[in-house]
Write a structure and sequence with these properties.
Blueprint: H1 15-18, H2 29-38, E1 48-52, H3 58-65, E2 69-73, H4 77-85, E3 89-91, H5 95-100, E4 105-111, H6 119-132, E5 133-144, H7 152-155, H8 167-175, E6 179-186, H9 196-220, E7 230-237
Parallel strand pairs: 1-2, 1-4, 2-3, 4-5
Antiparallel strand pairs: 5-7, 6-7
């Protein structure tokens, strides 16, 4: 606890400035290609979408452009004010509050958020998310890769991170939350610029990563595990 009255101790003081969130609610060209890759096979038109911790608002902007009905949760007051200025439905509320309001969503996303929850919060919030999903609804989360040495730079680069999350922990959280695991995998990667040559180089790098993952799993006698710095988990509400 701080010895200075009124001094912030939660790690979020100046967080938006450190993350360079401008509150412009714009989506850059490469971000748009990344979102399109991550949500390939999941059309958003007409879907009710909730983003937990929307930050700079780039995903909300992209999802709205894809025809989704979007809303977001955020604790940062500057980003909440920016969302209001740009006409987005946003609030500082807990998932438990939304459950109490009988809200339902087709898709819930959390980019770089769930590592900010401790164990009790993870268990409670995954159950809240399951309750908030409509039938056959999907939860997608991106987080630092807890079982990869390459994930440490992101995991330990933020004072507000409370949990280290792995493929196996996602499986446990899904099991106790009435969710089925669709996939837990490396983040979808897109080249820095479009073009056939860059796409070919990008494909080669993906094959090289896959070879390294297979080789390490054979060496240590484990299941093949994704080793990129960040993972994406896609969970579906169990029938």
């Amino acid at each position: 606890m701080s010895d200075t009255p009124g001094e912030s101790t939660d790690g979020y003081e100046g967080y938006a400035q450190w993350k360079r969130w401008q509150g412009s609610f714009e989506v850059r060209e490469r971000e748009a290609r990344y979102f399109a890759a991550e949500f390939r096979g999941m059309p958003l038109r007409g879907k009710r979408v909730l983003e937990i911790g929307f930050g700079s608002g780039s995903f909300l902007t992209w999802a709205k452009s894809e025809g989704a009905e979007v809303c977001g949760l955020e604790i940062n007051p500057d980003m909440l004010a920016a969302a209001a200025r740009h006409g987005y439905a946003a609030r500082n509320a807990s998932l438990g509050e939304l459950v109490g309001e009988d809200a339902r969503y087709d898709l819930i996303v959390a980019f770089d958020v769930i590592e900010h929850w401790d164990t009790d919060e993870l268990i409670a919030n995954f159950r809240h998310i399951a309750a908030l999903l409509a039938d056959d609804g999907v939860f997608l989360a991106r987080f630092p890769n807890g079982h990869s040495p390459f994930g440490r730079v992101y995991q330990h680069g933020d004072f507000t991170h409370k949990s280290v999350i792995s493929h196996y922990k996602i499986g446990y959280l899904a099991t106790i939350s009435n969710l089925d695991v669709v996939r837990v995998a490396n983040v979808r990667r897109v080249s820095s610029r479009p073009g056939a040559l860059r796409a070919l180089r990008h494909r080669w790098m993906a094959l090289r990563r896959a070879w390294i993952e297979r080789s390490i799993s054979r060496l240590y006698g484990t299941d093949r595990l994704p080793l990129d710095p960040n993972l994406v988990a896609v969970l579906r509400k169990r029938a």
